[in-house]
């Protein structure tokens, strides 16, 4: 089985998000970038599905050379090879177009992504890739089993889940439950340096959106403390002041 | 040119988020001085469909096609693309729900439309630009996205726009274009819904607990409080990682992002990753025995003390207030 795993390179989850003074750009100075946590789950499941010579895992990333350390991390975790489409990921459709253009004639049986990237997190790229490749897409899955040529997936819905059967090839976006993230071992880290990372030139694609500016939320006022033995007062405040009950 | 809104239902019933998205789409249609058409898939109950008129949909298209009674995003995308063509819609709006996340990008790619996912406000349409505020960086920031394409798709976050009555008597029309076999690859075998539980992403009130609760056996008092309030339950990541609670309750940067009217955090320290997913809640109450817990810095109301003493008392006080 040939699996393609899409990965994004995102600010570490502890990052305090700030922007340039004109509010136009994310302030990346001093920020540590990581493999998007959901993509780690997709990658871990792909490795499990191909372990023991049952297939190969290729990771693909649309981004610049500054992402290479994160791509090497994916190789250290266990991907067989990597592809970087050499361009900033301008927007979701542009990114999906790059992945689809690369994957189109490579015969992948399965494409896995994270449920969303934790920076621009639109949860947009996966289903767009599905549409562009003309294959089924299932978003936000919590379980993935392959039975012959059928994927048996658990998809999250409001207040429950759905069991979905999909024929290969398809694309699915992974959430918690699909797999446990894998930590690279020493051998993985050593071999990651020599595994192939090919850099591919960008395909032309329309840009449909542009980010005008960013804002950070207005901070809340000071906290109002209520004594532990006076919970009735809290209930009163929630009713009369906050008006939420 | 018109606006189209796709309205989800659960077993034939519209939830609050359905009325929110219709109200939001109606406001966009008003901004552009045009009409609003709603599309409902897999439900032909007239009385229920008429409710969408209450929130401003002047036309309601529905399909009773049983092949589409469960969610297949390829087939749904095709149907919505056809409905958009029929209604001459330049803008398609839907909820940023689990299904919406699978459907909107497919539809946008099909239409060649730019997509704003997770809108939290109405578009700004001055200056011949069309710009929408959305949540980004897992709730740590907002971005203002300008759609450059003629066709546009927007998904609205639950609890971001109030359901607003704007009553019209809708024209209700059946709309059932033929479904292509190739669109039906995905087969929903089973739908499992926890009965009687409030759905977390859309909940107006959320009671959430963390590692301070010590173990899964102590969640009874959290559920009692949630039941007294009519709230959904949630938890921090280590709690679901340890299997004390199911994954779908985990809120935060790597879990569900919620923005209820009230978020009560019990025995949760307030790590940056947790705050990311909950800080857009309108009111935050923190109960923690450590007065230095970082969560107090972003709370509206706080109680310092032992959750095991405070939570049962709070439940009683809520019951007394509600007269139950
Ligand atoms: C990549 C990454 C992603 C992450 N994503 C998320 C995420 O999405 N969501 C998330 O929640 N976390 C996330 N985390 C974890 C996060 O960093 C914190 O570890 C986590 O939020 C802490 O959970 P907690 O507050 O329940 O536990 P703790 O930090 O252990 O806090 C327990 C709190 O309970 C209080 N307490 C103890 N006993 C009592 C009592 N009897 N009464 C009242 N209070 C009591 C303590 O004072 C303490 O403040 C992530 C971490 C990483 C590295
Ligand atoms: N620049 C990128 N290159 C490759 N894959 C990406 C990129 N951005 C996002 N993805 C994939 O798409 C998923 C959803 O991302 P998003 O639509 O940005 O929320 C991520 O978890 C990745 O798997």
Characteristic terms for this protein:
heterodimer; A: 245 residues; alpha/beta; Rossmann fold; nine-stranded mixed β-sheet; two-stranded antiparallel ribbon; 31% strand; globular; B: 324 residues; seven-stranded parallel β-sheet; five-stranded parallel β-sheet; binds flavin-adenine dinucleotide; binds adenosine monophosphate
In brief, what are we looking at here?
With 245 residues, chain A is α/β, with parallel strands linked by helices.
Characterise the protein shown here.
The complex is a heterodimer of chains A (245) and B (324). Chain A has 245 residues and is α/β, with parallel strands linked by helices. Chain A has one domain (2-212): HUPs (Rossmann fold, 3-Layer(aba) Sandwich), CATH 3.40.50. Helix content of chain A is 25%, strand content 31%. Chain A contains six helices and 13 strands. Chain A has helices at residues 37-50, 68-77, 92-103, 125-133, 186-192, 231-240, and strands at residues 2-6, 9-11, 33-35, 56-63, 81-86, 110-114, 137-147, 150-157, 160-167, 170-174, 197-200, 209-215, 224-225. In chain A, helix 2 crosses helix 5 and helix 3 packs across helix 4 (125-133). Chain A is globular, with a radius of gyration of 21 Å. Chain B folds into two domains: 2-184, HUPs (Rossmann fold, 3-Layer(aba) Sandwich), CATH 3.40.50.620; 205-322, Rossmann fold, CATH 3.40.50.1220. Chain B has helices spanning 16-31, 46-54, 73-86, 98-111, 220-229, 237-241, 272-278, 307-322; strands at residues 2-6, 36-41, 59-63, 89-95, 114-119, 131-136, 141-147, 152-156, 171-174, 187-193, 205-209, 232-235, 262-266, 283-288, 301-304. The relative contact order of chain B is 0.12. With 324 residues, chain B is an alpha/beta fold. Chain B is built from eight helices and 15 strands. Helices cover 28% and strands 25% of the residues of chain B. Classes of the chains: A alpha/beta (245), B alpha/beta (324). At the A-B interface, helix 3, helix 4, strand 7, strand 8 and strand 9 of A face helix 3, helix 4, strand 5, strand 6 and strand 7 of B. Strand 13 (224-225) of chain A pairs parallel with strand 15 of chain B. Bound molecules: flavin-adenine dinucleotide and adenosine monophosphate. Flavin-adenine dinucleotide binds at residues 210-212, 236-239, 252-255, 267-269, 271, 273-274, 277, 288-290, 293, 306-308 of chain B. Chain B: Its cofactor is FAD. Chain B: GO terms for molecular function: electron transfer activity; flavin adenine dinucleotide binding. Chain B: Belongs to the ETF alpha-subunit/FixB family. Chain B: One of its GO terms (biological process) is fatty acid beta-oxidation using acyl-CoA dehydrogenase. Chain B: InterPro entries: DHS-like_NAD/FAD-binding_dom (IPR029035), ETF_a/b_N (IPR014730), ETF_a/FixB (IPR001308), ETF_asu_C (IPR014731), Rossmann-like_a/b/a_fold (IPR014729).
């Amino acid at each position: 089985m040939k699996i393609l795993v899409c990965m994004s390179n995102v600010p570490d989850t502890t990052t305090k998000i700030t922007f340039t003074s004109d509010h136009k750009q994310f302030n990346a100075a001093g920020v540590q970038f990581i493999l998007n946590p959901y993509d780690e789950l997709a990658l871990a499941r792909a490795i499990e599905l191909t372990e023991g010579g049952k297939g190969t895992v290729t990771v693909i990333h649309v981004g610049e050379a500054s992402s290479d350390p994160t791509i090497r991390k994916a190789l250290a975790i266990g991907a067989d090879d990597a592809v970087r489409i050499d361009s900033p990921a301008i927007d979701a459709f542009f990114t999906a177009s790059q992945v689809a253009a690369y994957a189109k004639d490579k015969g992948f049986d399965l494409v896995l992504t994270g449920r969303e990237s934790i920076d621009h997190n639109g949860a947009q790229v996966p289903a767009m890739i599905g549409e562009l490749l003309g294959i089924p897409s299932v978003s936000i899955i919590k379980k993935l089993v392959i039975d012959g040529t059928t994927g048996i997936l658990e998809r999250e819905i409001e207040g429950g889940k759905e069991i979905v059967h999909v024929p290969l090839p398809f694309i699915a976006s992974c959430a918690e439950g699909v797999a446990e993230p894998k930590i690279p071992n020493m051998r993985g880290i050593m071999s990651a340096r020599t595994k192939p990372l090919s850099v591919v030139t960008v395909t032309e694609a329309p840009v449909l959106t542009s980010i005008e500016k960013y804002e950070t939320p207005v901070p809340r006022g000071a906290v109002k403390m209520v004594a532990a033995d006076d919970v009735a007062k809290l209930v009163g405040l929630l009713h009369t002041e906050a008006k939420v009950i | 040119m018109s606006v189209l809104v796709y309205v989800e239902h659960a077993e034939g019933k519209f939830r609050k988020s359905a009325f929110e998205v219709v109200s939001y789409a109606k406001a966009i249609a008003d901004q552009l001085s045009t009409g609003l058409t709603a599309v409902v898939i897999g439900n032909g109950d007239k009385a229920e469909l008429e409710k969408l008129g209450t929130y401003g949909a002047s036309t309601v298209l529905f399909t009773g096609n049983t092949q589409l009674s469960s969610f297949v995003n390829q087939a749904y995308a095709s149907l919505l693309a056809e409905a958009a063509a029929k209604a001459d819609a330049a803008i398609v709006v839907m909820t940023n729900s689990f299904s919406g996340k699978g459907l909107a990008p497919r539809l946008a790619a099909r239409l060649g439309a730019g997509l704003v996912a997770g809108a939290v406000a109405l578009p700004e349409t001055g200056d011949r630009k069309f710009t929408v505020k959305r949540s980004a960086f897992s709730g740590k920031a907002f971005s203002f996205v300008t759609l450059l394409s003629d066709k546009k798709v927007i998904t609205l976050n639950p609890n971001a726009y109030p359901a607003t009555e704007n009553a019209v008597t809708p024209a209700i029309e059946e709309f059932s274009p033929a479904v292509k076999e190739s669109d039906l690859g995905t087969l929903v075998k089973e739908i499992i819904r926890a009965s009687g539980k409030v759905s977390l992403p859309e909940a107006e009130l959320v009671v959430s607990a963390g590692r301070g609760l010590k173990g899964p056996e102590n969640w009874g008092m959290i559920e009692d409080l949630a039941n007294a309030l009519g709230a959904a339950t949630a938890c921090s990541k280590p709690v679901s990682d340890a299997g004390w609670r199911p994954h779908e309750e985990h809120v935060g940067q790597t879990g569900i992002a919620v923005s209820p009217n009230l978020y009560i955090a019990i025995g949760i320290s307030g790590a940056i990753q947790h705050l990311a997913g909950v800080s857009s809640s309108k009111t935050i109450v923190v109960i923690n025995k450590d007065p230095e817990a970082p969560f107090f810095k972003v709370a509206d109301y706080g109680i310092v003390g032992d959750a095991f003493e405070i939570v049962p008392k709070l439940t009683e006080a809520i019951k007394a207030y509600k007269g139950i």
